[in-house]
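An example makes the point: we print one protein in full, the chain in one-letter code, the fold tokenised, without further comment:
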Amino acid sequence: SVFFNSASSWNNCDFETNLCKVFPEFNLQPSWIRRNGKSGLEPPYSDHNGNESAYFLSLSSEMQSSSAALRTNVFLPTDEEHLCQIRFHYWLSQMSGTFMVGFQKHSEDTVTNIWQVSGELRNQWNVNTITINSTEKYEVIFSGMVETQRQGETVAIDDITFSEGC
């Protein structure tokens, strides 16, 4: 199993501060809002640990655009001893949320979708781990989408942890 080092801000992004070094354009993403459970009239009302005052990212229901991407900085190629494992917590509203993780190799223009989930999961935090194996430099893209702008329709993400191989 891969050892997750949660002490380093390079390796862990819990959104408690704005300083997530792995996401260089973090503050330039108006479609994602950094909030906690107390701040909104819509779920989630806490982070994945049940803490109402801890922060996470969610899609802003005020935005006309209902999709948003969060792109990492460039990771070096993986090798057999150091695969890149990424663990993250995600929340989907029950009607129309979709959450995707993709990666883009440096030589390609397209994003390859490696994992996706849609809104059959009912308003709860879930956790997932993905493994990336790439022979060239790459970036990882987290994308959220809601099809409607109804109250309470959101996608959220929390505690993204990157293994040493990323």
About this structure: The beta strands are 12-13, 32-36, 55-59, 67-71, 84-92, 97-105, 112-118, 125-132, 138-146, 155-162.
